[in-house]
Amino acid sequence: MGNHLKNETSPYLLQHAENPVNWYPWCNDAFEKARREDKPVFLSIGYSTCHWCHVMARESFEDKTAAEILNKNYISVKVDREERPDIDSVYMSVCQAFTGSGGWPMSIFMTWDKKPFFAGTYFPPQPRFGMPGFSELLNAVAEQWNRNREELLRSAEGITARLKQLNTSYRNAVNEDLCHRAVKLFSDSFDVVYGGFGIAPKFPVPHNSLFLTLYAQRNDDSKVLEMVEKTLTQMRKGGIFDHIGGGFSRYSTDQYFLAPHFEKMLYDNALLIIAYASVYVAAKRYNYLDTAKKTAEYVLREMTSKEGGFYSAQDADSEGIEGRYYTFALAEIMDVLGKEKGERFARTFDITENGNFEGVNIPNLLKCEKPVSDFESEIQKLYSYRKNRRRLHIDDKVLISWNSMMIAALSVLYRVTRNRDYLQRAVDTELFIERNLSRGLQLYTSWRDGKRSEKGFLDDYAYYAAALMELYHSTLENGYLDKAEHFCMEAVERFYDNKNGGFYLSDSDSTELFMNPKETHDGAIPSGNSVMAYNLTRLYQLTENESYRALAEKQIHYMSVQAQDYLMGYSMFLFAKLVYDNPPESIKVVLKNASDLEKIKERLPLFANVIVVPQSREYALINDSTTFYVCRNHICLAPSNEI
Questions:
Q1: Most buried pick, 49, 180, 206, 390, via CB within 10 A?
Q2: Which pLDDT score, from 0 to 100, does residue 100 have?
Q3: What is the Cα–Cα distance from 507 to 495, expressed in whole angstroms?
Q4: Which CB contacts under 8 angstroms, 24+ apart, belong to 421-425?
């Protein structure tokens, strides 16, 4: 049959290309058709590995009755939230304003000039869960459009005016004790029994762990580090970690980290590699490093394109059942491993006849007190067995922001392990971005099948600049630092609000929506504004360029104002503020011989500002040998030949 999505490259849009709904991608033609035919627009936003997006597609978008109502009364538009974060951000604000919550699939009813008058998320085919049936809702909205349009338009004007006002409001007052207050809030919500913060569902939120780890180190606070260790240990032991294939699922549906939502996202795994590697450096327990390595192995094995980029996500559903790919019956374990090894594996990994999850088993180590390391051959056999199941759908588009996170993760892991394979993969992915997702200083959000998106957003520039700085820290090659400066300044040029501070999500002169959002709080990934606070801080500390200091100071102040009422949602910014207020060691290296550099890199701290400087009167060689000039806590130490 086909509709207007058949020539798109987004896996999400292509999943709907054969729906009986006459879908359009987001384009001028769709909105002009709505104006010409005097119809409202139904906007559906989701992504290709979203479980409830699949459910609504099966129940409603593949249903001929619902499709007939949509095609008769609406112009229907599909958007991949990962390709168009600007559209997703604006209408998520709308959805939250209408309903008090948000999520995907997102369902927006709006005018042809893109002003929303009703919003929701998933709607069932028949009334249930206290929600109207989807067809029933479509008919009701269409009737209101035809009989009571003025009220709908007043609703649209009201919600857009309110959101624009909130987006541009500005306050000056700020409580400076943000980091200490945030730690108190995390401590109050910490689950001392099962780890994590708050109640189920529990999300990994690796940027929380990064902030708390750095805070613990800066303040010599063992209790804060214990919270992080407990959380990361439980996550590794739980079913949220894939004990057979490596990597982490999206979140835990329970308080124990046992039963996950089985979808795997590139961004979660990239940021968790950094979190586990950082805690390994702080706590010196090998299990954290092992977790980081197994997570990296998963991404390199299953989420990597032949061109050198990393895929976006791996689906939760297999054979129409969420988690089917990942779960086992006890009999399967016995068949694959044999009786003796099977029984031992089952005892260790909580595999029972009755199952630990809906009659089947999620392998986990939650009942084990000691680390387990001697099941490698059994795990390999089960991995090979599992591969014969129906293959999981992979969202194979390459996103520059998420790939930048993975570059940063591999760079950090290289500095911890000194395994050059990690560094090489990071370098290769940066080259992939250079070839396919950039043109000069213009970045593009996504790439698939040789085609790239039309534009880039704040997060693309922020994360790419951060990745380039991590590559610099791993290689000490100035080219990466220079490039990071260029893209960071391009972000300032394109997205910075010179009047009120902070960064817009889209270019200020090119947004087509009723507002250009400033995303400040961290969600599943840190916000572009948080990452820019970090980037500007590190650039100033590395280059001592006063213009970067001024920008960093303004951004820190702006974000401090935004964060003060919801500190637990700003952990990446708080991490940046810790770095700004308490800079890591500044190490200037004067080389005797260029060949000294490789050995030096092996002895440098993970988190330090290192610059190779030419020999001069200010920075001279001591004892005719490579010399280190180290400053920390605003005090410079005597030059030394030993780091």
A1: 206
A2: 84
A3: 5
A4: 422/296, 423/474, 423/475, 425/300
Task: Identify the residue whose tokens are 């909580």.
Answer: 350
Tokens encoding 467: 């990745």
Q: Which of 229, 206, 223, 216 is nearest to 179 (CA)?
A: 216
Q: Which pLDDT tens digit goes with each residue over 62-80?
A: 999 999 999 999 999 999 9
3-class DSSP assignment, residue 297: helix
Asked if 70 and 21 count as a contact pair (C-beta separation under 8 A), the reply is: yes
Give the strand pairing for 394-395 and 321-322: unpaired
Side-chain-facing half-sphere of 561: CA atoms under 13 Å: 13
Are the CB atoms for 55 and 317 separated by under 8 Å? Answer: no
Report pTM: 0.93
DSSP 640: B
| pLDDT single digits (tens) 98-113 | 888 888 999 999 999 9
- Residue 503: the pLDDT is 96
Q: Output phi, psi for 310, to 5 deg.
A: -110, 135
Provide the residue type at 532 as one letter: M
Contact by Cβ (8 Å): 417, 289: yes
Omega of the bond leading into 105 within 30 degrees of 0 (cis): yes
> In sequence order, which residues have a C-beta less than 8 Å from that of residue 194 and are 6 or more positions away?
234, 255, 256, 257
